[in-house]
Amino acid sequence: MRFSKLLGRTLKEAPSDADCISHQYLVRSGMIQQVATGVYSYMPMGWRVFRKIENIIREEMDRAGGQELMMPSLQPLELWEKSGRLPSFDKTIFIVTDRKEHKLAMGPTHEEVITDLVRRTVQSYRDLPQLPYQIQNKFRDEPRPRGGLLRVREFFMKDLYSFDTDEASLDQSYKKMVQAYKKIYARCGLPSVMVEADSGAIGGKASHEFMLITESGEDEIIYCSKCDYAANTEKATSIKKPNPPEDLKSVEEVSTSGLKSIDEVATFLGVKADQTLKSVFYVADGKLVFVVIRGDFEVNEVKLKNALKCNDLHMATVAETKEAGLVAGYASAIGLKNVLIVADDSIKLGNNFVAGANKPDTHLKNVNYPRDFKANVIEDIARARAGDPCPRCQGELKAQRGIEVGHVFKLGTFLSERLGAYYLDKDGSSKPIIMGCYGIGLGRLLAAAVEQNNDEKGIIWPLPIAPYQLYLCPIKTEDVKVMETAERLYSDLTAAGIEVLFDDRQESPGIKFNDADLIGIPLRVVVSPRTLQSNSVEVKWRREKQSQIMPLEGLVSNLCTMLQVNG
To answer: What is the pLDDT of residue 218?
Structure first.
């Protein structure tokens, strides 16, 4: 491809709302363009990267036994009502009404459609297992689209669904997909780690995420330094260290005027944070929830939402807190009535806590569970932390940041039961089909690749997914010999099967080199009057600082070897 003919242009400045490096570099390099908030066009170079990722995914899905199909983006809302998942997706679903006043959903995912499809197709155990998949655009009305392709309202997904007769068969399908995912990321040149994850609105009983490790990641991974335990913070657990046991003391009221935070109160009273009880107020599906947790822990809202089995959860506003008669900064569960109290199990790991007195400027010492207050629900609702003991081996947990680029779920039978997807077993008995769900966001993976592979100059594409393999850059295009050599090289390299972006523009070396670094093509070949004096060119890998001089004789063959192209 000649640069002069390329649709798109590079930019010196990033958009003002580009808050992450992939957003900045993908726009500046001319690979994507914003159409509306959370909606992007893929420009030719960006689409080449996308198609390479897509082809790798498709090859591995086919190799694992998947069958590609295509399902509609428009879905009858009745399917969602029948599955019971409509409240879980709430306002994120785009709903349209046709001319007959019939409501349709613009598919945010396709579990309902594929389950209904299989219900109509599969009859007996002989028809199973099945691994249908598609690569298609989906729609979600994200409340806060951000990060370019990382969080958008229209996006491309590969979603494969497994349909099996029993748990053992599901385990086989699940393991098969996990291995396929590992191969996909390896082939893309993107190191990843598999972690335990929460199933979220998709549902199911077990799930794992695949994360690309990068300091700019929006998610945090908790992992063990000794064993293979790893989970995202939504799912991660740890061993909570108990406080030394004490004899129970009598409750004592103390004045804490103007002191509201855990740190302020603990310092004032000369105790540690783990000797206090923290109170946090939430509203779950419109109902106030009073949460109690040991003061050295933070509430994990995903765990809390799962414990409450609610669809909507948010921290109570000032108005909602006042309406419930709670005193912010000085509240506790002692004496509360007609309020749902949810406690973290850490309240059992100590005695004689400091807690609020439910009146301004006052706290209580020596509060103990269950002597002084009760809880309706007690579960692990705390965020696991780096430094905590591992729940498997008691090794030290560590944390690192990453970006989710794939998610696999064991759905079980709840969707097949609700939507009537049954099969006849060998005995002629009707049983629900056991399902799994396996997704990869292609645009998100593309953006995450940039987050993981960049420097201060621009993108550094891994070779397998780079828009072009080689950047051919003639310097001083007015020099006839330079251009004749560059044109001949372009023809020979292309004929040898190398993907070349030929920068035939009449621009200065500085502009060309800056664009080359910004776009991030793995290998750069520079033709200049200086190198031609020795019948050679300058060759430089994007990841390396030093270049090398290579002779023109045998150059195409040598470049094919470097790029692993069978020329």
So the answer is: 84
Q: What is the pLDDT of residue 19?
A: 86
Pick from 545, 146, 192: nearest CA to 402: 192
Given the structure tokens 């009858």, which residue do they identify? 76
- DSSP for 149-202, please give it: GGB-SEEEEEEEEEEESSHHHHHHHHHHHHHHHHHHHHHTT--EEEEE---GGG
Burial 338-367, CB ≥16 within 10 A → b, else e: eebbbbbebbeebbbbbbbbbeeeebbbbb
Residue 260's domain comprises 252-379
For residues 38 and 109, membership in a common domain is answered with yes
Which region, left, alpha or beta, applies to residue 8 given φ > 0 means left and ψ of -120 to 50 means alpha?
Answer: left
Instruction: Answer whether residue 557 is part of any domain.
Output: yes
**440 inside domain:** yes
pLDDT in tens, 24-74: 999 999 999 999 999 999 999 999 999 999 999 999 999 999 999 999 999
SS3 370: coil
| 230, amino acid identity | A
Q: Which residues of 87-122 are buried (b: 16+ CB within 10 A; e: fewer)?
A: ebbeeebbeeeeeeeeebbbbbbbbbbbbbbbbeeb
CA distance 68 to 160: 9
Average pLDDT over the chain, rounded to whole? Answer: 94
Q: Residue 296: give its domain's CATH number.
A: 3.90.960.10
Specify the number of domains making up the chain. Answer: 3
Asked whether residue 204 carries a pLDDT value surpassing 70, the answer given is no
> How many angstroms separate the first and last alpha carbons of the chain?
18
Q: How big is the chain, counted in residues? A: 567
| Angstrom distance (rounded) from CA 346 to CA 354 | 14
CA–CA separation, 331 vs 288, rounded Å?
A: 14
Burial class of 289 by CB neighbour count within 10 A (0 to 12, 13 to 18, 19+):
buried
Q: What is the pTM of this model?
A: 0.86
